[in-house]
């Protein structure tokens, strides 16, 4: 019997495409700057590696929580809101870091959006568990 998780799968697919695009940017810069390991002296590559790395640090965990929420029966509207915000936040984070390694509106949206997703997911998980205990 297959477990259907259409909302989580939608955002996992979209985020996988974004992850792939970020990886392609890193690979192209490695070729361009002839850097096999690390970032050498290339600032562009250093930024691209951090954008890709930051994505890899945050997205798997937030996706796991999204799946758990869907498995527990969270509303479709909530799941779409969280998944959509996560996708937009990660796109904004990548754009923001490409614009400037310092503060930018896009990076701020990316960071805040990602943290909001994490906090909402954490709140949902804790609320769900507390409700089970009652």
From TrEMBL:
InterPro entries: MAPEG-like_dom_sf (IPR023352), Membr-assoc_MAPEG (IPR001129). Pfam families: MAPEG. Keywords: Membrane, Transferase, Transmembrane, Transmembrane helix. GO terms for molecular function: transferase activity. One of its GO terms (cellular component) is membrane. Gene3D superfamilies: Membrane associated eicosanoid/glutathione metabolism-like domain. The chain crosses the membrane at residues 6-27, 77-97, 109-130. It comes from the Bacteria. It is found in: Membrane. PANTHER family: GLUTATHIONE S-TRANSFERASE-RELATED, PTHR35814. This is Glutathione S-transferase.
